[in-house]
Amino acid sequence: MKILISNDDGYESEGLRIIAEKLSVEHDVFVVAPDRNRSAVSHHFTIFNDNTLTKIRDRYWAYSGYPADCVFAGLSGCIFEYEDCSEELKKKPFDLVITGINYGPNLGTDIIYSGTCGGARQAMLNNVPAIALSVDPVDWAKAIKEGFKFEPLADFVVKNLEKLVSMVKMDYPRAFVNINGASISEYKGVKFCKELCMRNYDDKIELHNALELANNSNIDSKKSESGKKCLENSAVYTSKADKENVFLTKLVTAFEDKTENKPFVKPNENTDLYVCRDGYLSISMVYADPLCCDDEKYQKYIDDMKF
């Protein structure tokens, strides 16, 4: 197969390197990945700005855009005119797009924010089958200290690639395959999940007065520089008198999923989160095409609307 691989963690990501190397043994693999971390950018697509494309080595490119940009650019084919491979391979359409292996899960609500899933969705919109891969560390501090375990998921994909591609739904509404596994050495097995979890992140936004930060360089030079940059960014629409009303915002996230005492979170055994945390690989089908609620009960509201 001719396979395009991308991600949202960046072209230097270990997960991307591992899956690319393993698939390259039997397949023609090309990589177009962001030149920096682009996590949680969803389906962000560059329209008004130019992007920079850099060849890192044969069949391996870094792109200044977002995951959806990377997939779109890779599938366009023009990039690979500069590759030292046969004309037949250059002209051959891609059989598959793989995004990942991602640092962190893409379970349930994560999919909305995920750049990994955004790249897979873009492939589907280009009518190319797509598979998104992610590893859930569960304990982030431990995984960062000891390293993520990408090999078991990569090995599973290599052994079952044709079956996974066959699962991709190419008729409307199209759906890509989303696979998540814990960062462990061995899985109990694999389960198909008919339900996706609804996650609560307990995220918060902190506000810091930019002027106060900028003027406190003796306390924390890094925060001071952040304050100065924040003021520079706001200069186009604020006067000197307004600078005291400029704030730096910081997202504070717990990297947790608290299922207890959260009635809107589905912790039952059918969800991808439950399966993944139970030591299995979770496979779910995620729609790429937009769907609307077609329940007839909404028609009565339309009937009563006035002009």
What does this structure look like?
By secondary structure, the protein is α/β, with parallel strands linked by helices. The chain is built from 12 helices and 11 strands. Strands 3-4-2-1-5-6-7-11-8 form a 9-stranded mixed β-sheet, with helices on both faces. A two-stranded antiparallel sheet has the order 9-10. Helix 1 packs parallel to helix 7 and helix 2 runs parallel beside helix 5 (115-125). The N and C termini lie far apart (56 Å).
Q: What is the β-strand count? A: 11
Look at the structure and give the mean pLDDT. Answer: 91
What summary fits the major beta sheet?
9 strands, mixed
In terms of DSSP E residues, the strand content is 15-25%
Strand order of the largest sheet: 3-4-2-1-5-6-7-11-8
What percent of the residues sit in helical stretches (DSSP H or I)? 25-40%
Q: What general form does the structure show?
A: globular
Count of helical regions: 12
Order of helices and strands: EHEEEHHEHHEHHHEEEHHEHEH
The low-confidence parts are 256-264
Summarize the structure.
The protein has 307 residues and is α/β, with parallel strands linked by helices. The protein has helices at 14-24, 67-76, 87-91, 110-113, 115-125, 140-146, 151-159, 161-167, 210-214, 221-234, 272-277, 299-303, and strands spanning 2-6, 28-34, 53-57, 60-63, 96-103, 130-136, 175-182, 190-192, 204-209, 247-252, 281-287.
